[in-house]
Please model this.
Amino acid sequence: MTDDELVGRAGLVERARTQLETSGSVLLYGPTGIGKSALGRALVADRARSGWRVLSAAPSQSEAGLPYVTLLDLLSNQLELAWQVLPDHLRQPLEVALLKASAPDTVRDELAVRLAVLHVLRRLAASGPVLLVVDDIQWVDPSSLEVLTFCARRLTDGVHMLATEQVADGDLPVMAEACPEPVLQLEVPALAEADVLALLRNRLSSPLPVRTARRIHTASGGNPFMALELGRAVLRHPQGVSPNDPLPVSSRLKTLLGDRLADLSPATHELLLHAASSPRPTTAQLAASLGRLVDGELAEAEGLGLIDVSSDRLRFSHPLLREFVYAEATSAARRQAHARLAAVVEEPVENATHRALATQEADADLAAALEEAGTTAGARGALGAAATLWRLAADRTPADAPDDRARRLTRAADDAAAAGHLVESAEMARLAVQAATVPEVKVPALLLLVDAAWSEREQRIELLAEAFHAAQGNDRLEAQVRILRSHSAYFDRRLDDAREDARIAEELARRCGDTEVLVDALSAAHPVEVAVGGGQASDRLLGMAGELAIGLPLTKSVVHARQMAAMRELFRGNTAAAIEGISTLVDEVRDGGAVRWLAGILISATAIYERSGRGAQALSAGHECLQLMQDLGDEPEVGMVIAARAEWAGGTAAMAREMAEASLEAVRVVGNDEWTGPALSAVGLVGVLVGDPQRAVEAFDAIADSGEAAMPYDPAVIPWHADYAEALVASGRLDDAAALIAEIRERADTLDRDVVRVGLARSEALLIAKQGDPAAALDLLEKTIATAGDQVYPLDLARCELTRGRVARQARRRSVARTAFLDAIEQFEQYGAPAWREVAETELARLDVPSRSRQPSELTDNELQIVAMVRDGSTNREIAAALYLSVKAVESQLTRLYRRFGVANRTQLLRTVDRGGTDLAQR
Model:
């Protein structure tokens, strides 16, 4: 059983597992293909690992008339035991029922069979838990069902049942009586869009365009079987599937759906095709497009369960029926349906779409109408639909207007890229470059291709060279090319080239008077100035770009400038202004439908929420960023880095560590040098959080060894130096820590970055305490907290309180330590930082226990049991089951033990306990 099969099902699995572990049975129900059997397999594997005896059967419809066949399957591996333990008057009827002997059936024989099975199950349960598994219980033969129902009413502890039942959407199960009570009936729901996209990403042999994957989610209704069948059919389609093409339906799905449509009258089939061709069909619209009354056809389709009609609106009973009806029609029939709908639909965008799909001929007037519709759709925030309309406009453009075709293709590619449809965007940009004959059309298309090929360095540079050659003589176009060349040089760490291109781009933008290009040029210069240590210059550039962007329509350049303006406020410690700026931008971009832009903005939103003491919002933004980047297939490793930081601030220590290590591996696998430093910093930060200074120092040292190019020069951009110094102190490298603190403090002075001073003071206090003067360290911390002011990061202040408690304990000032730990706990709670709150709570608990109790020989009884099971190799889940704890509680207790003894893993914990002389066997 793979995790891929259980995507989106963690909550269901946990509820079912808890029910089986405590008492009774579980009945999973839902429609065909919803994933009941996959869930059942996972639960069976879990119970088998726990030592349960599993008796299973999977009845089928074809065998439902064979008496006792399910019973035979259930007991097939237990018959020898049954013959041994049953008395003759029960054994012989059971042998007859299971065709192991021949004798006439009687009423008394049927009762004896039921008693015999009950007797066998009780004997099996006497030696350990028994799990009866019946997959598709609705097909159990009547004789077996009567036996199971009889036993279910009489069995008490020890025998559980896990059953799956196929029901239609919205229906309730009816087979609960066959399960020993209490019975937990769990509906297996449709998967959410994000889960379907993850399923397709994990299970298919090749990735799908995100727009196609989303269409599959809609068509499948969240049914994983249907989604995978549609996905595989798309991959088998030789030319791929455009947004206006019907989704191909696999033969297995055709078998499921075809029978429901087989007996339809031709008139009703025609009505359904018109409905499938319309995005919002109504009965009045269909009657108008067909030119007749449609009451009879509607009644026939409703009677067969194909559609639902409510308040004139028509809806297919399952979304896949719409795709099936449309896909099975001939192309001529589809064009005719669209032509008739175009004659009656007045809404401009929908009318233009129907007109385009009603013909394959070029038509200048139609292309112009589609262009207008594309503009309208984009203004409404439907960028995906806009891209489709612009592509249709290009396809209907006459051959004697190649630059009109190229211009429309470029706009389609631009909207598609913003909507996150990157594969389609690249394809349309390539077609635009091929069609264009003038620089004003060709250069923008080339720049879109550069963006699409960004990770392929040689191709990127080659395309930029072609664009630069085409743009010469046009200030605006040359400025746009130089801006992208600056980004490219910065990405390759050619900072002098990047700086020069950004400077010239700014001059060209001012000369041609294009404000948007000027905003883009100033924004391009900012990271270069940061990298070369020009703090004041970079800050000035951000301020200018942000001011110019105010009031401009949302474009990629404007969005980036506003995003960086919010970050500028964050670097200055103006967290309220940063939150307002980024939250407003997130809302506007989300409403505008620019999914790819949104993913990038969420990187900044996560950082702003994290440093502003809004852990829950940081966690939400970080995981949405990861989800979007995974769905788009656009640097998902970057999303993993952001999610790791979000977990560090607002999630759990265990998840933060898992995400950080995974993100580091991911950036290294794809060779993303730009994000290797941030990934290493996430690993280091988590190392400090979980009390693993060795791992933290390894990660931070790797950044330092990579040179200045690994991370921004400005210490406020990605704060990590204070934690590096803290890890160095914990590792005994005091001179290195002192040198680092001095260097970063000088850098903060130069760049006017007061926001990093609190973290540096915290690290310096730890250094002073380690050097033997905890009183002086405590004074430094108290002065830092008292004089911090408003322009600091709340989480930094809370961590200062935590450090104050640790130093006060070292100085034997227990009351000060207690107050500091309590203040830290309160602040971490207020800021939504549960992992940090747990650290503070652990420190407070250590303060309340005599120091000798921190020796291995003074483990509590519960801790001794956990350590003993760790020694036996038990998993956290197995420990939780044995001790009647939640898995989370076991993880928390192990984390506390690691911190108490200064270890990082199970092996080190066992060694420490052994050195302490604890005799677990005696205890």
User: Anything to note?
Assistant: The radius of gyration is 33 Å. The CA atoms of residues 630 and 636 lie 5 Å apart. Confidence is low (pLDDT under 50) at residues 850-854, 917-923. The chain has six domains: 3-189, 194-357, 382-472, 489-552, 712-848, 853-915.
